[in-house]
Amino acid sequence: MIKKTVVLGVTGGIAAYKACEIASRLVKLGIEVNVIMTKSAQEFVRPLVFQSLTNRPVATDMFKAPLSWDIEHISLAKKADLFLIAPATANIIGKIAAGIADDMLSTTVMATKAPVVIAPAMNTAMYKNKIVQKNIKDLSDLGYHFISPGEGRLACGDSGVGKLAEVDIIVDEVIDILSNYPKDYKDKKIIITAGPTREAIDPVRFISNHSSGKMGYSLAEAAAKRGADVTLISGPTYLKPPSSCKTIFVTTTEEMYKEVLNLYDESDIVIKAAAPSDYAAETISVNKIKKTQDDLSIKLKLNKDILKELGRIKNKQILVGFAAETVNELEYGKKKLKEKNLDMICINNVSKDKVGFGHDTNQITIVKESGEEKVFPLITKKELANLILDEIKDLMTES
Ligand code: PMT
Questions:
Q1: What are the tens digits of pLDDT across the range 84-105?
Q2: Which domains does the chain have, with CATH numbers?
Q3: Catalytically active residues, by annotation
Q4: Which own/partner contact pairs does 129-132 have at CB distance under 8 Å and 24+ positions apart?
């Protein structure tokens, strides 16, 4: 992540403790985090916690001796690449909406030109209150970003909407806004496949693999954010389908084949991050196979190779494959690039620590049809997704 500064405003609510995790996660991503706490926030968490997590002084009081010769609220307002308020109470939202600046946080947020992201957290009735909702709408209309609270049991004992959004969601939103990705995929139709496929053996068992879908879903989300018209074709996963693209769910390799082929003609780019099962049972037992013998043989038949077929009938499309290998990854990956008539392949050695199946991180080598090779470091799949899209963009401009 490029060097950026986030000013994190923490207001007084029980969710203030979650702001510690937000601060820590942003710091780990290499972001400088400057925390401003309101008086009531300090009743829930001590400034020392944030000071230790961010390795920066915490601003708490307008009238304390300044930390630098700049007027502090102005200098923080200027420094911010992004201003995040989490948790945000009804009080701070009301103050910002009404233009009231009477403490360190409200004066700084009023003085900033940076994008302001607000993550509300409060009691359900307060959140649904018409004045609060009007304030949120007015601020949204003025360009303030809101991260909707989640639903669940609240600290006050009530159940309903008002819980601070998940830390993951808040951190992702901050990174997205800071990254400020260009809409360089506008008008491009992309098919992205993700996850495993399942081949039934009998009504209760199947053959599959450890793909979680994280790599493919990260690519789909990133491409949609960059303006692409994305169709995600997904095998069974536990992931929430991205709201930014159309998702088609499949179970078997044959079903994935049909869905991909159906959309192939009208697509510009296909990225095959899925791990389709190469084999299926030759016959699927109608009833559950009983444990009547010591060993059991199941005859498997080879499934269609979706990517190979796409390569065979390719006309204008840019075709990107993955290769999941455990040994000789470069050799096998390059062979797949050629045999499947691909424009680019992302090769991962899935026997390495934190690489490939199920992890939030991945490490790949990209090889292009031109012979160009690039080794990428071990990074999150979300970060990697954008780097893969940068490489595909180069292919688009070359063709
Ligand atoms: O889902 P995650 O947990 O995030 O893990 C990510 C991943 C490890 C699944 C991903 O990074 C990855 O490597 N995907 C490809 C997995 C795979 O099937 O690799 P392969 O080397 O067996 O296949 C080569 C290519 O052919 C792949 O693009 C694959 O999608 C495609 N293929 C394979 C078999 C088949 N029957 N049809 C295909 O189209």
A1: 999 999 999 999 999 999 999 9
A2: 5-179 (3.40.50.1950), 189-398 (3.40.50.10300)
A3: 156
A4: 129/90, 131/94, 132/90, 132/93, 132/94
